[in-house]
């Protein structure tokens, strides 16, 4: 029975790696968080009621989201007011594990909600947007996301397939030089227009337009065919994804994972220092740890 689980895990990991046209190098994929979530994600794909392709047309499958697009100008006004107050910003400490690497390349955010009620800061500063989001329960997480000129997000895939990503253009360059690529397909943001994609495909973004870009960024619960699958998805969200909550201001919730992140990041800094001194030692330890974990699983 143990070998059945091992082979099932390997099959799911291989499917995640070869899914789509764009792939990580095998060495990177072995250590990517999506590999460890592969069996759960394959289950989400099998149970999905919407197409499992890179881009999805939101109005065809999510009519409940239409009020967000209908009120995009009012939402934009709240986002621009936040920007004037310098509240759309990078995390002020090591308390946003999910997006920590993005901050180094110019990306900024202001959380509106994260698998829970609105942050107190969001309810105070963005009353209209948080009210609209409250009326659309399928939106599990939302934020304003800013990408300035010269900013970029390197190719990556998100770890969990229980949601789909919605981008609604608010204050964008309206320029093809500001774009996102999902599995090799490109979309350029426009004011008042939206796109939806499966964030477990490899995606990347750049802004070379000379102007700033602000969007409404939402994670929308993936519709699933069966009640047991929906219950499982919500269990994972309540007990794992919610632990990634990150604050805008003091008084906002910080999830358990982000409370621990500063300690893991200190270890990460030590590993980067080792890599600078000796790449061979760094990779020997890195792949040795992976081999050790695999051996424990196989022989347990």
Automatic annotation (TrEMBL):
<feature type="domain" description="Aspartyl/asparaginy/proline hydroxylase">
    <location>
        <begin position="70"/>
        <end position="223"/>
    </location>
</feature>
<dbReference type="InterPro" id="IPR027443">
    <property type="entry name" value="IPNS-like_sf"/>
</dbReference>
<dbReference type="InterPro" id="IPR007803">
    <property type="entry name" value="Asp/Arg/Pro-Hydrxlase"/>
</dbReference>
<keyword id="KW-0223">Dioxygenase</keyword>
<dbReference type="Pfam" id="PF05118">
    <property type="entry name" value="Asp_Arg_Hydrox"/>
</dbReference>
<comment type="similarity">
    <text>Belongs to the aspartyl/asparaginyl beta-hydroxylase family.</text>
</comment>
<dbReference type="InterPro" id="IPR047694">
    <property type="entry name" value="Lipid_A_LpxO-like"/>
</dbReference>
<keyword id="KW-0560">Oxidoreductase</keyword>
<protein>
    <submittedName>
        <fullName>Lipid A hydroxylase LpxO</fullName>
    </submittedName>
</protein>
<dbReference type="InterPro" id="IPR051821">
    <property type="entry name" value="Asp/Asn_beta-hydroxylase"/>
</dbReference>
